[in-house]
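Lab meeting prep.
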Amino acid sequence: MLFIGIIALDAGMLSLSLQDSPREFMIFYLLGTFAFSGLVDVLRARESRRVGARSWRLTLIIGAINLALAIFAGVFGFALKKTDTVSYIYGEGLVYSGIMRIISAFRQTSIVYIQ
């Protein structure tokens, strides 16, 4: 949890520093975060399915939605030049990600004790 907190703090500070930069940098940053997060989740789901875990479907859905958000942010940001919509997509993506992490935290998992 400490590492996730440090990474979140660093990402927040980077986001605040990009506020004075041109909008294209912010759009690239948002696209990169959603695309990377989605790709990692899809690869984790593939690995979980290969191992035989039951929760690979939820991870695959989370990854697919993150990739779709990256595509929508790219379309609205570059093709339609609507940067306000990109920030709304990013905010909704963060809310969605938080809700899915809370749901994942309450899932039953097996705990292996090593003696």
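Slide two material, second protein:
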Amino acid sequence: MKLRIIKIDRNNSTWSKLALLSVLGAVASVVALATPGTGILSNSISRAAIDAFDAESQNGDWHIHLDTNGQSDLITQSITLLPGGSSGWHNHPGPAILSVRAGTLTFYEGNDPDCTPHVFAAGTGLIERGGDVHIARNEGANALSIDVTYIVSRDAPQRVDEPSPGNCPF
């Protein structure tokens, strides 16, 4: 058996093309791992830049305190998931405040080994912490409509696609 030695000239344009193809292949692999949404319609209502804030309010036993240490974007979006639709696995780089307007939202967390469904009917809502991988699904027979407000650092995306964490069968 003969061993063939190939000398690669890094200044050669063929080497540059191979390196570029390798990089593009790696990027395509990462994109291919993402789980895009299906049966989803979204409408961004607004995006507003806000300065750092420290807001606190109290009413009887109820208390809220929100603060940031820098500029933020406040983003409001209306989302509809058709029956069988899904948001795809993703996270948000800041909190997301959801209100279910119509239908039923079924929410799964990527760090839950049991893939426990959390069900939210119309008139209920939830707050997603930033950075947690999750998926929203419409497992009902009617369209699901939700309104979402995101608070993220200035110019950050409101959503980051993620690969399936592998804890759910879908």
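Talking points for slide two:
The first helix runs from residue 13 to 33.
Residues 36-161 form a domain with the Jelly Rolls fold (CATH 2.60.120.10).
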